């Protein structure tokens, strides 16, 4: 009887040990021409944050991938302070970033 309780207790404890906290999302960042960009892994959508470090308006091109589907965003971003950053949400994962569209 004690052996059975020990096995049940061990199995119960094992179940608790395997219920880990959710995995941390990966953080990604980089530079493309005048742009600094960053994003974290999302579940259903991904939001990319960007900042134009040049003093003139520039275009940021984001290549997105959702399974076998490719799509692109072309975002005109001012170089004026206070208007030089923003974000874009998409139901895909960003694959590459480039300045110009």
Structure summary:
By secondary structure, this protein is α+β, with helices and mostly antiparallel strands. Helices cover 16% and strands 50% of the residues.
Description of the molecule:
The protein has 101 residues and is an alpha+beta fold. The termini are far apart.
Can you list the strand order of the major beta sheet?
A: 1-2-3-6
From the spread of the alpha carbons, the general shape counts as: globular
Mean pLDDT: 82
Q: Secondary-structure element sequence?
A: HEEEEEEE
Topology, number of strands: 7
Contiguous low-pLDDT stretches (5 residues minimum) are 1-23
What are the defining features of this structure?
alpha+beta; single chain; 101 residues; disordered N terminus; Immunoglobulin-like; 1 helix; four-stranded antiparallel beta sheet; three-stranded antiparallel beta sheet
């Amino acid at each position: 009887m004690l052996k059975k309780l020990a096995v049940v207790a061990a199995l119960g404890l094992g179940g608790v040990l395997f219920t880990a906290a959710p995995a941390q999302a990966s953080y990604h960042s980089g530079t493309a021409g005048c742009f600094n960009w960053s994003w974290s892994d999302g579940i259903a959508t991904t939001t990319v944050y960007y900042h134009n470090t040049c003093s003139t308006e520039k275009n940021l091109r984001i290549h997105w991938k959702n399974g076998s589907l490719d799509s692109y965003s072309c975002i005109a971003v001012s170089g004026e302070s206070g208007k030089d950053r923003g974000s874009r949400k998409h139901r895909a994962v960003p694959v590459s970033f480039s300045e110009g569209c």
